[in-house]
Amino acid sequence: MIxxxxxxxxxxxxxxxxxxxxxxxxLPGRADVLLLAGDLTRHGTPAxxxxxxxxxxxxxxxxxxxxxxxxxxxxxxxxxxxxxDGEAGIRVLEGDGVVLAVNGTRLGVAGVKGFAGGFEGRxxxxxxxxxxxxxxxxxxxxxxxxxxxxxxxxxxxxDVRVALTHYSPVPDTLHGEPPEIHxxxxxxxxxxxxxxxxxxxxxxxxxxxxxxxxxxxxGVRVRNVAQPVxxxxxxxxxxxxxxxxxxxxxxxxxxxx
Length: 257
Ligand SMILES: [Fe+2]
Ligand SMILES: [Fe+2]
Hints:
By secondary structure, the protein is an alpha/beta fold. The protein contains eight helices and 13 strands. It is globular, with a radius of gyration of 17 Å. The chain starts with a strand and ends in an 18-residue tail after the last strand.
C-alpha cells in the first residue's frame, strides 16, 4: 500500500513560522510521501519561501511540490524554486516527474501548476484578441507539459502514476465556489490529459471554497487538498500497487489550519 499525504494552499507568511511543523511530526509513521499542491506562500517572495522551506524540510518523507499562482505573484519563481528545492530538498515539479520506490512499488508523480480556462460548455477559447489567445495558449501549454510529464513516468516504469497540479482538472471539486469564477479555478484540458495517461489519482488545490472529492470524465479520482477544504495539516490517500485505492484515510488529528 502507498500512503500519500497531501495539502495545498498553506499560504505561509511571516506570522506563520512554525505553525504547521508540530502536525508534521508524525508524518513518517502515517505516510510515504507528502505532496504540496501549490500556493505555499502568500505573495511568492523569497522570504516567504524560506518559511515554507523551514516548515517542510526534513519531515522524514520525500516532499514533492508544484507552485501555485500566489507563488508566482512576486515574479521570483526561479528563486523560490531554488530555496525550496535546493535548500530544503523539496522537489518542485513543473512539467516533469519523479519516481519513488515505496514498499516495493514504483510511485510516479507528475506535476505542473496548470492554469485557468474553464470546463465543458463554459470555457475560454483561443479566438479574437491576442490577449485571449495568449490566455488559452497558457492553458494548453500547461496541459501539454502535464502530458509530457506523465509520459515520462511511463518511460521510467512507474507502477502507479499520480498527477499533481495547483489548478483543478475537473469542476466536481469546485462545488462551493461561486459558479461565476469556476473558469478561473481550473481547466478541462488537465482532466483530459489525466484520463489519457490513466493516472491513479489527481491531487490539486486553489479552490479554497470547493470540496474534496471529484472524478474525471474517465473515472480518475480527484482530490482538492486546499487546506481550507481539508481543514487539516494534510489529507491521506492510499493506493495499492495497481493504483486502486481504498477509502481515504481519516483527517489528521491535531492539525492546524
Ligand atoms: Fe490558494
Ligand atoms: Fe491559487
